Amino acid sequence: MSLLVQVFRQPDEIQRLQAHEWDLLVRQARHANLLGRLHHRLLAAGLAADIPQRPANHLLSGAVMAGQQHHSIRREVRFLREALAPAGIPLILLKGAAYVAAGLPAAEGRLFADVDILVPREQLGEAESALMMTGWQSTALDAYDQRYYRRWMHELPAMQHIFRGTALDVHHTILPPTARLKPDPRLLVEASVEIPGLPGVRTLALPDLILHSATHLFHEGEPDNLLRDLTDLDALLRHLGTTPGNWDVLTARARQLGLEGPLRLALRYTCRVLGTPVPAGLDCLGAGGPGQRMLDAIYSRVLRPQHPSTADMLSPLARKSLYIRAHWLRMPPHLLAYHLAHKALFPPAALTKPLSDDKPYEEPGAKKAA
Amino acid sequence: MRICDLSPSDFRAQLGGDGIRLATGPFNCRLQSGIGEIADELARLYAHHTLVASSAFTDFHIAVQPGHGLRRWLRPQALFSVDSVEPFTPLPRAQALPMLEWGLNWCVTAYSQHILVLHAAAVARGNRAAILPAPPGSGKSTLCAALVNRGWRLLSDELTLISLETGQVMGLARPVNLKNASIDIIRAYAPDAFLTRPVHDTTKGTVALMAPTAASVEAVDTPATPTWMILPRYRAGTDATLTPMGSGNAFLQIADNAMNYHILGDRGFAAVGRMVDSCQSFGFEYSRLDDAIAVFDRLAAEAESAAR
Amino acid sequence: MPVQRYVATAALLEGLQFVLWKEVDEGWVRFDPSAGQTLLLAPISRFVLDQLAHPGRALSVDDLSYAVLHEEPDAPPDDCRLAVSAAVDALAAARLIEQRRPS
């Protein structure tokens, strides 16, 4: 079992770690985009004093990155509300943006690259126009891409804001229309809840957020993200469990949406790998059959080390890391009109310089897009 | 034990094998390279740095390796990676050594959001630090190199690290990056300093690395208190002149030159505010290095006598 | 001709609880983490902002000038009005305040 998974399951394992094992843990966590989440996990378990200085710095660094990004997500959400409200289109957040805006525990320590929203299918065209008028641009360049997305996928082609550079995915269902399972998006929209303190901003109801996460567990392209997505689900489920009766609500909803299969599989998975507390009857002991085979295959994928964790030569293969992408792409705009505010009363000789988010420091060679 | 205590052949063997593990200020680095020709200059640049045990926690696992496949031989390349992540596109093999430095800077910038990182040089007299934020082309590195060879200790040439807890500067004492005309200027100014052979045609022009002084490296773990914030600007023919800067302006200058001010949020705001409170802030124009050094020396002397 | 009144923007009001201030030589540095903005404000700009940073409050340049004069009775009224106008323009450009839209 990889060290990272072990520590997530059993945080007090860290008490027995030697320096080189901490080294490995930090690197595995960074590759899995879980540095910040690990930081919070260990702190929540009361283990802050058991983390040596150097790894503590790395964990804190990851958590700080995530924390800052939450501000920029909240800011994006406000901009989105401004864009969609005049057109009468509800703003319904999905996934990471939902967790952050609603202040769910699943948001803690986690970097999210994009904002995902759900829009009723019949309002998709209007939504796209409203967004384009406020500076969002489709990233699908040619007509083929455009057609591909609209016809086959469950979302518009990914959008990017021309000034802020932030990424937006607009969905009209939670699974592609071509998928076997067809949860009714109207039910999702109807059940959406407004975030207290954020008028005009809604998220899917908690059971629906969980089902969304569960159905996408095995749709991710990169195996490295599997563990990260599992920890998302684990955090959501633990939060669900704090309210009595919620598990029944979840299973009933899964039945209503036709998503019992994915839910059962996902529960088996988080329970077995991360030890998520799951009520009896929904537990993680699967009996044979094709589901079991898939589970075992996936199980071994997650349990293999996240990256070449050997003491010797580093792997020559370059790996793109979500962490790097999140770091470089999500710098929020600095001040806008500082120099104007400054001019209000100052003598002309004063030296002023507008803050900008152009970094003065440039790396040689182009940064790789990720 | 220090790098200079290793024989050249041991150094070379470790560099090409399990890696050289050394401390650069607060960071333990493991350096590996299959590009043998950088070994001798690398060993000289880091001669006084302390070696770190392989059982210790390593902050950055760094490698600069030859290009893959055909590019190992045809227009040979160097690839930088940190723990199998490649943040840069490959560069010509001849640029391997500067690439290592740029890569190390990248690591500090990318992975250290627990401290305030400024794009600035920092030097110290005793435990008082002068911080020199400056955009590229301001002559900061030349000035920094000159100061370091006239009794100021090098904290950093490129990235100044400020502890969020204490507000102190944590030194790196890594090589100074010199470009184009500065190379000859500093060779003349400090004939005893070690400079690598110039590397041509980089995106920053011709580049050479200058080794930090032994004294700088030996004192690297002694933090320094930010005392002066000086924004240097080279202007041909001008006298060395300090112009006092208001603390609000100084705040914005520092924040604008910080790599992670906006990432740190409240803590960044507090750290920059604290720095502004503890520093005298100036704009600085100069042309002749000796005049510039004299101004810095005078500031140090004034602070010293005020303290008594 | 109706008098132009200014109000706080939604962005200003929603982020208000997180804002931090630091007094400096030239006035104040204002840090707004939710807007991702750091501003250097002259004292008069801060004063104007403080007057407007209340939900539902709408004030004209005249209203604001009277408020300033109330604090600084010796200030020349014309200079005061000019300074307030400049402050209002600057704050509007920073999207902290805006003209009240006619209902």
Describe the secondary-structure layout.
The complex is a heterotrimer of chains A (370), B (308) and C (103).
Chain A: H1 3-9, H2 19-31, H3 35-44, H4 53-84, E1 91-94, H5 95-101, E2 114-118, H6 124-133, E3 136-138, H7 143-152, E4 159-161, E5 167-171, H8 185-191, E6 193-195, E7 198-203, H9 206-216, H10 224-240, H11 246-257, H12 260-274, H13 289-303, H14 322-329, H15 338-343
Helix pairs in contact in A: 2-4, 3-4, 9-10, 9-11, 10-12
Chain B: H1 8-16, E1 20-24, E2 27-33, H2 39-45, E3 60-66, E4 77-82, E5 91-92, H3 96-111, E6 115-125, E7 128-133, H4 140-148, E8 153-156, E9 159-163, E10 169-170, E11 176-179, H5 181-189, E12 199-202, E13 205-210, H6 214-218, E14 225-234, E15 241-244, H7 247-256, H8 261-264, H9 266-278, E16 280-286, H10 289-307
Parallel strand pairs in B: 2-3, 7-14, 14-16
Antiparallel strand pairs in B: 1-2, 3-4, 4-5, 6-7, 6-8, 6-9, 9-10, 11-13, 12-13, 15-16
Helix pairs in contact in B: 4-5, 7-9
Chain C: E1 5-8, H1 10-15, E2 20-24, E3 27-32, E4 37-41, H2 43-52, E5 59-60, H3 61-71, H4 77-93, E6 97-99
Antiparallel strand pairs in C: 1-5, 1-6, 2-3, 3-4
Helix pairs in contact in C: 2-4, 3-4
Structure, briefly:
Chain A is an alpha/beta fold. Chain A has helices at residues 3-9, 19-31, 35-44, 53-84, 95-101, 124-133, 143-152, 185-191, 206-216, 224-240, 246-257, 260-274, 289-303, 322-329, 338-343; strands spanning 91-94, 114-118, 136-138, 159-161, 167-171, 193-195, 198-203.
Helix content of chain B: 25-40%
Measured distance between first and last alpha carbons of chain B: 37 Å
Order of helices and strands of chain B: HEEHEEEHEEHEEEEHEEHEEHHHEH
Q: What is the string of SSEs of chain A from the N terminus onward?
A: HHHHEHEHEHEEHEEHHHHHHH
Percent in helix of chain A: 40-55%
Q: Which sheet architecture does the biggest sheet of chain A show? A: 7 strands, mixed
What's the number of helices of chain B?
A: 10
The pLDDT mean of chain A sits at: 75
Our measurement of the CA-to-CA distance between the termini of chain A, rounded to an integer number of angstroms, reads 29 Å
Q: What structural class do the secondary elements of chain B suggest? A: alpha+beta
Kindly provide the radius of gyration of chain A, computed on alpha-carbon positions and rounded to a whole number of angstroms.
Answer: 22 Å
The poorly predicted ranges of chain B are none
The average pLDDT score of chain B comes to 94
Beta-strand share of residues of chain A: 5-15%
* Oligomeric status: heterotrimer
Give the strand tally of chain A.
Answer: 7
The total strand number of chain B stands at 16
Number of domain units of chain B: 2
What integer value in Å does the Rg of chain B equal?
19 Å
Shape of chain B: globular
List low-confidence stretches of chain A. Answer: 310-370
